[in-house]
């Protein structure tokens, strides 16, 4: 974990590592034509790896004494299934939701785990390969530190919530809920219309707030973790350049080790929280107000 060279100041080093490899230059703050290619590549690869690992576990499952790999996957399956049963009481829905929750948990954990890879390892490889192929010299490997990735995941959960709202309650029942919850209605026509508008507005605010906070929570934690690793990498860079390099290097190793151990807990917890919130939101879609 070292800096790219003495030509870069600490600020320039961090700014460089926070720029995505994109398909085009962003022309405005909100530009939906810009695609973060690095996030797409790493999230897609890890998504495929997640499906392969779970498929391999199912294929090798036996009725006898399980091996370590099968036992670990079975523990995950039982954990997710118990959480799904606690918040989603529809057994038919759980046949789809529980496997999806398991996949999301493993997938997000693997995307978060990319933060454990030394900061400059993959970017330094891309520093040689990228420009040679005509691409910019930018590369970020933690897809969950990209807001477009986390909001994409939370929007997917929102779409599933809308689907189950309609499937479980029917279009008429859900429409009635939108204008009668949380403040109820009135027999007075004027008050009924007024409360209906307020209820509908509150429902829309709730959907938007849950979706944004769902994605922002994961993004904020992973982005902060990525920044800390960059600062630790800078400490290692200064260790090799300063007169007190020995002490700096010791601090670099200690800080990196402590933060890595702590961050393993963080990335696991963030994957679990995202999965649990998805289950809770889907469970709310099954319940009538």
Q: Topology, pairings included?
A:
Elements: H1 10-17, H2 37-60, H3 68-87, H4 91-113, H5 121-132, H6 147-180, H7 189-239, H8 245-286
Explain what this protein looks like in three dimensions:
By secondary structure, the chain is an all-alpha fold. It has one domain. The chain has 8 helices and no strands. It is globular. The protein starts with 9 loop residues before the first helix and ends with a helix. The N terminus is likely disordered.
Class of secondary structure makeup: mainly alpha
Shape, principal axes of CA atoms: globular
State the total count of DSSP E strands: 0
Provide the helix percentage. Answer: over 70%
Distance between the termini: 53 Å
């Amino acid at each position: 974990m070292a800096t790219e060279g003495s030509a870069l100041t600490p600020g320039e080093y961090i700014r460089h590592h926070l720029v995505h490899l994109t398909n085009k230059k962003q022309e405005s703050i909100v530009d939906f034509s810009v695609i973060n290619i690095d996030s797409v590549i790493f999230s897609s690869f890890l998504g495929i790896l997640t499906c392969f690992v779970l498929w391999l576990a199912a294929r090798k499952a036996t009725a006898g004494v399980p091996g370590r790999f099968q036992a670990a996957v079975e523990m995950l399956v039982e954990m997710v299934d118990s959480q799904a049963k606690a918040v989603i009481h529809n057994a038919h829905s759980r046949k789809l939701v529980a496997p999806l929750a398991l996949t999301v948990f493993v997938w997000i954990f693997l995307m978060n785990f990319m933060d454990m890879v030394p900061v400059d390892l993959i970017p330094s490889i891309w520093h040689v390969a990228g420009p040679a192929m005509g691409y910019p010299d930018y590369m970020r490997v933690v897809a969950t530190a990209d807001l477009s990735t986390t909001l994409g995941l939370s929007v997917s959960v929102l779409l599933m919530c809308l689907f189950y709202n309609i499937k479980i309650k029917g279009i008429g029942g859900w429409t009635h809920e939108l204008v009668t919850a949380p403040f109820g209605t009135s027999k007075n026509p004027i008050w009924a219309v007024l409360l209906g508008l307020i209820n509908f507005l509150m429902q829309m605010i709730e959907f938007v707030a849950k979706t944004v906070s769902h994605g922002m929570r994961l993004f904020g934690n992973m982005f902060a973790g990525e920044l800390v690793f960059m600062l630790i990498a800078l400490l290692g860079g200064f260790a090799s350049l300063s007169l007190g390099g020995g002490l700096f290097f010791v601090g670099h190793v200690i800080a990196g080790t402590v933060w890595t151990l702590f961050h393993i807990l963080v990335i696991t917890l963030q994957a679990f929280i995202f999965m649990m919130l998805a289950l809770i939101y889907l469970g709310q879609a099954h319940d009538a107000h």
